[in-house]
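can u do me a favor
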């Protein structure tokens, strides 16, 4: 399966890939393994030649493959993907300059602010803007622009249903803060996020979470990804 999603348009191309043996990726992209058990193979097997005493020896098969573990992400470029389970592919992150205020204004015109979505006074003026949300089977996701550095999201530890929640950094830098209680000063650990990365699981075996929040370090775009049971 190779399904194109529209949630990032016109800024980012987003695809869900599943049960592909050699999906070709041209140029830079961000890959997230959505499977909770199986690795994804990234790379290819190809012919290589070696020079010996001024002559070209017989071509040999060279394997250059990286295994991406479950629920982990990587920046990839000009390669192939082999996966049995689901994978998320995001293309175009390298073209977005969040230092350009024109780009920020374009994003804010198309993606809705938290206040527009919730009408909660506590969200008025918060620099969080969300793309439409979409779901494919047990995976739901959307993009989030944080238009200011050092801006934390709301603190939470519960979800409406048992899920695995991931933050996939697309542009800029951010982090997920873990807190001892529902108090902004109670941070006991921070999980750093650079473009093309996600964090280690925050949840335990029963999908119970500590208090946590996302926080931008620079102007940022990340994906909020939820994988249900």
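np, heres the sequence
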């Amino acid at each position: 399966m190779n399904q194109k999603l529209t949630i990032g348009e016109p800024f980012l191309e987003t695809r869900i890939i599943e049960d592909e043996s050699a999906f070709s990726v041209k140029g830079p992209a961000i890959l997230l393994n959505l499977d909770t058990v199986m690795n994804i193979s990234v790379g290819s097997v190809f012919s290589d030649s070696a020079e010996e005493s001024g002559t070209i020896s017989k071509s040999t098969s060279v394997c250059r493959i990286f295994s991406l573990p479950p629920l982990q992400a990587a920046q990839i470029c000009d390669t192939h993907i082999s996966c049995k389970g689901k994978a998320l592919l995001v293309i175009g992150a390298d073209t977005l300059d969040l230092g350009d205020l024109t780009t920020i204004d374009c994003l804010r015109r198309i993606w809705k602010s938290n206040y527009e979505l919730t009408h909660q006074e506590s969200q008025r003026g918060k620099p969080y803007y969300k793309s439409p949300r979409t779901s494919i089977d047990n995976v739901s996701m959307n993009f989030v622009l944080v238009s200011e550095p050092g801006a934390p999201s709301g603190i939470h530890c519960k979800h409406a249903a048992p899920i695995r929640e991931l933050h996939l950094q697309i542009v800029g830098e951010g982090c997920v803060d873990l807190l001892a209680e529902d108090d902004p000063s109670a941070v006991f650990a921070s999980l750093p996020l650079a473009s093309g990365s996600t964090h280690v699981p925050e949840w335990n075996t029963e999908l119970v979470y500590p208090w946590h929040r996302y926080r931008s370090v620079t102007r940022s775009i990340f994906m909020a990804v939820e994988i249900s049971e």
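Helices lie at 101-110, 114-118. hope that helps!!
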